[in-house]
Amino acid sequence: MDILRFATAGSVDDGKSTLIGRLLYDSKSIFADQLEAVERTSRDRGEEVTNLALLTDGLRAEREQGITIDVAYRYFATPRRKFIIADTPGHVQYTRNMVTGASTADLAVVLVDARNGLTEQSRRHAFLTTLLRVPHMVLAVNKMDLVDYSQSVFERICADFSAFAARLDIGDLTFVPMSALHGDNVVERSANMPWYDGPSLLHHLEHVHIASDRNLIDVRFPVQYVIRPHASADPELHDYRGYAGQVAGGVLKPGDEVVHLPSGFSTRIQRIEAAGRPVEEAFAPMSVTLLLDDDVDISRGDMICRANNRPAVTQDIEAMVCWMTGDRVLTPRTRLIVKHTSRTVKALVNELHYRLDINTLHRDEAASSLGLNEIGRVRLRLTQPIFCDPYARNRATGGLILIDEATNATVAAATITGTR
User: What pLDDT sits at residue 108?
Assistant: First the structure.
């Protein structure tokens, strides 16, 4: 059974947490004591109906303010598929948290309040999901019960969003009218909207095709750890040398010829192990251990790939950066640490090309810095080469984390757009 990772996005009070609570409740994926606690809290707050948003808004500050602050991860399953949900904040000051939640998602559910239509934050989150190359998007027009389940309201919002989406790179877009509060078109089709002939949200989540989204062509295996059981009393393990990591792309099989970077040395895969047992093939995102025919000097941060299909080996990269801290700003000559796959190197911001207004998509080429939650394109110079691909080709080898040298705090996320 495969796993679908999806993130919710949208403006404050569009109903993201309520939607997830409804999914968990209607799919019978919550325990009785959890439901009792939510019902009790709802009664104590004087609410007439059970507030299903409390199933995901776990922080005290979230419950007091009635907003989502941090990313809440929830898990549930149906007979067809397992799901990992990232409930991301809608408030503008928590945009960085939304980026974190959507960065690993296969699908994004962008909610829109039927009464308000598209807002600035709706457009912001839709743009961010395309920037992060989330392959599938659902525009969920929520609170349809408050507009009398009007077909014209739904179609107007769909037309508005389609006009905005024409300027974005969205691979797969689906529109669903719903009421998360009452469960219309969330798990079951709604009798209140007979004019809508599409699937419920859960039906779409169960059937959306994600297997082809992963890059199974370009073999990429960043080495995380070298396994040498020196203290083992087993003589068969005396010469054991395994290279552990997570497959970032392609398919690996025993007998395949591979190349080690940065040395360029060629060898063949002798065996592949997963959880201590041999497997016949490995593909993204499996975590495995490779054993090779030859003794190669391989260490953490190195890359194993195909001889005729190698990533770029470079110290100069172009990247889109989402700045995530208010403690400092990004300017040219800023020094940072770059975490890329399993490799960590120091870097210098050589140039800030522009700051992007993610509401109008206007490029401000006169900008001299990036502040909290701002996005821009930069050129980075690294102290050592990394083995990377454009983010559009491979999200695993095209993504970066930028870290403050002094505090070791994560200050930005970045996607590689090109190399020099």
Answer: 92
- How many domains is the chain partitioned into structurally? 3
How much is the mean pLDDT over the chain? Answer: 85
Phi, psi of 160 (to 5 degrees): -60, -45
Name, of 31-40, 207-216, 295-304, the range with top average pLDDT.
Answer: 295-304
Q: Which residues on adjacent β-strands are paired with residue 345?
A: 338
- Token readout for 236 is 């068969």
Report whether pLDDT(34) > 90: no
Tell me which of 284, 305, 326 is where a domain ends: 305
Coil, helix or strand at residue 79: coil
Q: How far apart are CA 229 and CA 245, in angstroms?
A: 17
> 280 with 237, same domain?
yes
For the segment 382-398, the average pLDDT, to the nearest whole number, is 94
**E strands, 25-180, where?**
72-77, 82-87, 107-113, 136-142, 172-177
Residue 378's H or E segment, with its range, is strand 375-388
Query: Could you report the per-residue pLDDT of 7-17, keeping only the tens digit for each?
Result: 888 776 667 77
- Is 80 exceeded by the pLDDT of residue 51? no
Residues in Cβ contact with 192 at an 8 Å cutoff, skipping those fewer than 6 apart: 144, 145, 149, 179, 184
Cβ pair 98, 89 in contact under 8 A = yes
| Residue of 383, 381, 384 lying closest to 419 (CA atoms) | 381
What's the CA gap between 269 and 221, in Å, rounded? 12
